Structures are given as C-alpha cells and as structure tokens.
From TrEMBL:
<keyword id="KW-0479">Metal-binding</keyword>
<dbReference type="InterPro" id="IPR020548">
    <property type="entry name" value="Fructose_bisphosphatase_AS"/>
</dbReference>
<protein>
    <recommendedName>
        <fullName>Fructose-1,6-bisphosphatase, cytosolic</fullName>
        <ecNumber>3.1.3.11</ecNumber>
    </recommendedName>
</protein>
<dbReference type="GO" id="GO:0006002">
    <property type="term" value="P:fructose 6-phosphate metabolic process"/>
</dbReference>
<dbReference type="Pfam" id="PF00316">
    <property type="entry name" value="FBPase"/>
</dbReference>
<dbReference type="InterPro" id="IPR028343">
    <property type="entry name" value="FBPtase"/>
</dbReference>
<dbReference type="GO" id="GO:0006000">
    <property type="term" value="P:fructose metabolic process"/>
</dbReference>
<keyword id="KW-0963">Cytoplasm</keyword>
<feature type="domain" description="Fructose-1-6-bisphosphatase class I N-terminal">
    <location>
        <begin position="11"/>
        <end position="195"/>
    </location>
</feature>
<keyword id="KW-0460">Magnesium</keyword>
<comment type="similarity">
    <text>Belongs to the FBPase class 1 family.</text>
</comment>
<dbReference type="GO" id="GO:0005829">
    <property type="term" value="C:cytosol"/>
</dbReference>
<dbReference type="GO" id="GO:0042132">
    <property type="term" value="F:fructose 1,6-bisphosphate 1-phosphatase activity"/>
</dbReference>
<keyword id="KW-0378">Hydrolase</keyword>
<dbReference type="Pfam" id="PF18913">
    <property type="entry name" value="FBPase_C"/>
</dbReference>
<dbReference type="InterPro" id="IPR000146">
    <property type="entry name" value="FBPase_class-1"/>
</dbReference>
<dbReference type="GO" id="GO:0006094">
    <property type="term" value="P:gluconeogenesis"/>
</dbReference>
Length: 354
C-alpha cells in the first residue's frame, strides 16, 4: 500500500507539463503535446540501450536518433520548421501537418564519446512559436521562412537536454526555472528528481579542452599593427590569461579543478549541478568558436540563466546573439554567475584599454 502511495504522488514530466499548461488557460495545449512528444522521444532513445529502436540494421546512433526525432516531431502536428545538427538544410513541415513551433536540436551531441560509454545527450530541443512572442496560433502557417529560426535566443520559449549516461535524465526549462527528470525504466516515466535546479553562485571547476591551448596563442606584447590586422589574436591571448588565472590565482585563492568530458551535455550538466564555468573560446582552429549557436549555445545559455547563472560569448550576452545562418558557431563561456562575471571583467578591461 505504501509503495502504491509512492507511485501515485510522483511528479512525472507529463503531470509537470500539464501543470505548466494550466498557467495559460487560453492555450490549446499544443506546447504541452510537443513537450510530451519530446519526452517520449527521449524515453525511446533512453530505453533503446543497445537494441535498435526500429529493428533496422544498426545505423550510426546519431543518424538513427536524428531520423527518430525528425519523424516524431513532424507527426506531432505541432511543428513548422526543424533545424538539426545532422541536416545541412532546415526541414519545412508539410502544410497539412504544420503546427506553430520551430524546433532546433542536436539529436546526439558528443556522439564521438559513444564507444567509450561516456554520457552523451540530445541538446537544444527548444521552440520558437512561429511568430515568436508568446504562445498563440500562428497567423500565416503558409508563410514559414528560415528567418523564423534566426532569432535571438532570448525569444525562445523552452530549452532542455536529455543525457544518456548511467541514467537517462531530461533537464528542461519552459521559462520558469530549471527542472530535472530521471527516467524510471520500471515505470517508463520521467520522474521529477531535481526540482528547481539553481547553479551555485561561484564554483571551483573550470571546464575547457586544454589540448587546444596552442591555438589560444600566448599573450603577445601589444602591437597596434597586429591588433588591427588580427584582432582575434588578442582575444585568444586574453583567454589564455583567464585560464592561467584559474590555475595560478593571483589573489591567494585555491586553483580551480579542471573537469572536461568533451560532451557538452555532460560538461554543462556537471556545471549546472556543481557550479563552475564551461568554456569553448574561438581559436586559430575555430575562429568563430566550435559550438553551434542555435542548438548548443542558445539552449544551454537559456538553462544557465534560468538556473541563476549566465552565458557570455566574449563580446555579449549569448542570448542576445542574432544568428544569420542555421549552423552558425560562437565562442561560449557559461556557468556560475560570479565565474562568468570574472571573464566578462577581463574582456571588458581589454576592450577599455583599446
Ligand atoms: P573538443 C562534441 O563534438 C561537441 O560538439 C560538444 O558536445 C563538446 O562540448 C565539444 O564538441 C568538444 O569539442 O574540441 O573539445 O573535442
């Protein structure tokens, strides 16, 4: 009887989404239906384990997860444009199945880590209503253009990621805080296990691929000619100085610990729970940074702000960026509020010196 009581008062993601919907009595529930589709997809991929979800010949997991995502989002009847890391072009949903949300996603982020069993994830299913502000019926579903997804991240309505590691976790924000749900395979339900996640104001961890340090350029003596010709050099050397500060603090505090998985979902999830800062700067190899704005930078930045942290590109608040291409990249520094403030101050000081 006790066990039954335990099972009946569980907050599942389905109940959570419906509770959220009750905040918008005038809404028709399309948003809830789409979120439930995403949760169902995450469940499917989370339960897939080593068996193939569709019994087809074993495809590369990222290709398979992309096919599963695209087909299910289209069949939900609530989407109008899909942008996937796996597809060069955006998918425009047929008018007969078109809804009012644009969904951008990386179906399997960090897939290079699959063979060694490191956590991987699905990032960035976040939605724009077709007309962006507020949840309402689109006025002109026939006139859907790529500009509907090239919006600043601050306009998005929801963001989240699903992490497939020792357990399958779905971390989601619909704009009123961040909640973490863990898949209970015995129930086949995502259960609310991390309500209202708040990132520590300051952390003791920095997360960056130090193997790229040679691309950050060592601090060079200031030379006006160089700065005019190659301004990014000073941005790289700035970044080099920031990382040095993490390792050799000049204020007598203890050095930060380095933790880096190489799967954005795993590194950001740890940052969200433990605090600290996750960094992927521009460098000689990736002059615009490596991470993609629409389906990596924006969703993780949205979550960080909702959890009380922040996210900075080296030049501006990440969510204020306005992308011009669907696979555009950007440098990104996100995490605990005070840690991001430190790197912002360093970059601002450089800007003032120029
Ligand atoms: P690097 C995975 O390929 C990814 O897109 C992110 O998940 C991850 O944060 C980053 O690239 C890792 O890149 O250059 O450190 O291997």
């Amino acid at each position: 009887h006790e066990a039954d009581a335990h099972r009946t008062d569980l907050m599942t993601i389905t109940r959570y989404v419906l509770n959220e919907q009750s905040r918008y009595p005038e809404s028709r529930g399309d948003f809830s239906i789409l979120l439930s589709h995403i949760a169902g997809l995450a469940k499917l991929l989370g339960l897939a384990g080593e068996t193939n979800v569709q019994g087809e010949e074993q495809k590369k997991l990222d290709v398979l997860s992309n096919e599963v995502f695209v087909k299910a989002l289209i069949s939900s009847g609530r989407t109008c444009i899909l942008v996937s890391e796996e597809d060069e072009e955006a998918t425009f949903v047929d008018p007969s199945l078109r809804g009012k949300y644009c969904v951008v996603f990386d179906p399997l982020d960090g897939s290079s880590n699959i063979d060694c069993g490191v956590s991987i994830g699905t990032v960035g299913f976040y939605f724009y209503t077709h007309n962006i502000f507020g949840i309402y019926m689109v006025k002109d579903k026939e006139n859907v253009t790529i500009d509907d997804v090239l919006q600043p991240g601050k306009n998005m309505l929801a963001a989240g990621y699903c992490m497939y590691g020792s357990s399958c976790m779905l971390v989601l924000s619909t704009g009123s805080g961040v909640n973490g749900f863990t898949l209970d395979p015995s129930l086949g339900e995502f259960i609310l296990t991390h309500p209202y996640i708040k990132i520590p104001k300051k952390g003791k961890i920095y997360s960056v691929n130090e193997g790229n340090a040679k691309n950050w350029d060592r601090p060079t003596t200031k030379c006006v000619y160089l700065f005019i010709q190659f301004p990014q050099i000073f941005l790289h050397s700035l970044f080099f100085r920031y990382v040095e500060k993490c390792k050799f603090p000049d204020d007598g505090s203890s050095p930060k610990s380095l933790r880096y998985v190489g799967s954005m979902v795993a590194d950001v999830h740890r940052t969200l729970l433990y605090g600290g800062i996750f960094l992927y700067p521009s460098d000689k190899k990736s002059p615009d940074g490596k991470l993609r704005v629409l389906y990596e930078v924006f969703p993780m930045s949205f979550l960080m702000e909702q959890a009380g942290g922040q996210s900075f590109t080296g030049k501006q608040r990440a969510l204020d960026l306005v992308p011009t291409k669907i696979h555009e990249r950007s440098p990104i520094f996100l995490g605990s509020y005070d840690d991001v403030e430190e790197i912002k101050a360093l970059y601002a000081a450089e800007e003032n010196n120029d």
